[in-house]
Design a protein that fits this description.
Blueprint lengths: L1 E9 L2 E7 L4 E5 L6 H13 L18 E10 L11 E14 L2 E10 L2 E3 L1 H4 L5 E4 L11 H15 L1 H27 L4 H31 L8 E5 L5 H6 L1 H7 L10 E6 L3 E2 H4 L2 H22 L5 E5 L7 H11 L4 E5 L7 H4 L3 E4 L9
Parallel strand pairs: 3-13, 3-14, 8-12, 12-13
Antiparallel strand pairs: 1-2, 1-4, 4-5, 5-6, 6-7, 9-10, 10-11
Helix pairs in contact: 3-4, 4-5, 4-7, 9-10
The chain binds adenosine-5'-diphosphate and magnesium ion.
């Protein structure tokens, strides 16, 4: 259970600590009071990255050089009688911005109980599932949104996936830089390509395989919200495919195949594309269904119960959708934000703790 979270020079927070004594906490505050920023802080502690900042520097308070979030967690006694009773855990993420030779730099560091960790060894300690209004765009939005849907789950549940994703991104960046150079100079650089090709292929194949497994899970699981089927529109990366696109890649200067080009097509009612033929309501049900399965999957794969983050969704959804979410909360600790307490369903109102934010509350407390 998340007992407290502190934010320092993080978004609109100068310094603030939130204590949670209750498994259900509702943060009430007007627009721009910092509700989503708080959720973003918790998400960052959980996933090691933001759900909305393209660049980490955006999370550091304006004019600041370093933003920090840290949390105190209480993990329950282990049910298998293994070592350790209830333990306290401190997680921390620090984002620093600087400048090297006139170029802006950003750096993120992760700590568990004060000990620095690599991201691959950090993520997974405090799993979470976020429901936010942006989710409602996943079906109709860009392929990147749908890929994050996969990454989010697999990164939280699978260390090998985290390592492969990092390795893939790094190698892809280098390979693209090389392609760009070759495009400009007309050199061949075959030896260098051999090296980067082998890295993108090796890591890329891990991603493809694990994404495929997760999609199989989604398709084979029971659905009670909307009967969706996910089609993996994958962009496989192999030596043959790279060879096939060799000239095209050198002409445009970027890597044209691989999991960074994957997409998902979400079907409903047998083979209809939800994006093209679903009503707005059906698209919402579709994404909710996928999120519920995500929650179920994380629950089945990790020891710690995921925290649910519901960021301002009750004003967006009708009663039927809200009830579906409430049914899926289960035993999870739930952090809810809303502009008006009246939006909170009666079912949870009675057992929740309310924390109020006002427009100037970010620096106090
Ligand atoms: N890096 C930053 N430094 C300071 N303030 C920020 C930063 N990023 C966003 N903000 C401010 O945070 C506020 C939005 O907070 P947010 O949590 O999204 O509000 P809401 O309560 O509506 O969810 C805005 O006023 C915005 O200007
Ligand atoms: Mg918000």
């Amino acid at each position: 259970m998340l007992k407290s979270i502190s934010l320092q020079n993080f978004r609109n927070y100068k310094k603030r600590t939130f204590e949670f004594d209750n498994p259900t906490v509702t943060i009430v505050g007007p627009n721009t009071s910092g509700k989503s920023n708080l959720i973003e802080g918790i998400y960052l502690l959980s996933n090691g990255k933001s759900f909305r900042a393209d660049k980490d520097v955006q999370m550091v308070a304006y004019g600041g050089e370093m933003g920090r979030v840290w949390a105190r967690l209480q993990t329950p006694e282990r049910s298998d009688g293994g070592q350790g009773k209830s333990t306290d855990l401190k997680l921390e993420v620090v984002v620093t911005i600087g400048e090297v030779a006139g170029i802006k730099t950003q750096h993120k560091r992760y700590f568990i109980n004060g000990v620095a960790k690599r991201r691959a060894d950090y993520v997974g300690t405090m799993p979470s599932v976020l429901f936010s209004p942006q989710d409602l765009d996943v079906i109709v939005g860009s392929p990147g949104l749908r890929r994050s849907l996969l990454d989010h789950v697999l990164e939280q549940t699978d260390r090998d996936y985290r390592i492969a994703l990092l390795g893939y991104k790094r190698a892809l960046k280098q390979r693209n830089a090389l392609l760009d150079l070759v495009k400009k100079t007309g050199e061949s650089r075959d030896k260098q390509f051999e090296y980067w090709d082998s890295l993108v292929i090796r890591n890329g194949n891990v991603l493809t395989e694990k994404r495929e497994e997760y999609i199989d899970y989604l398709n084979s699981s029971k659905k009670d919200t909307l009967d969706v089927k996910v089609v993996y529109d994958k962009s496989e990366i192999t030596a043959e495919r790279l060879d096939k696109y060799k000239d095209a890649e050198r002409a445009v200067g970027v890597t044209l195949v691989g999991p960074h080009r994957d997409d998902l097509i979400i079907h409903f009612e047998k083979f209809r594309d939800l994006k093209l033929f679903g009503s707005r309501g059906q698209q919402r049900l579709g994404i909710l269904q996928i999120k519920f399965l995500e929650l179920e999957y994380i629950r089945s794969r990790v020891d710690n119960e995921p925290i649910l983050l519901l960021d301002d969704i009750f004003s967006e959804l009708d009663e039927a959708h809200i009830n579906l979410i409430l049914e899926n909360i289960g035993d999870s600790q739930t952090i809810i934000t809303t502009t008006h307490e009246e939006f909170i369903p009666a079912k949870i109102k009675s057992k929740m703790e309310v924390i109020e934010l006002n427009a100037h509350s970010a620096s106090s407390g």
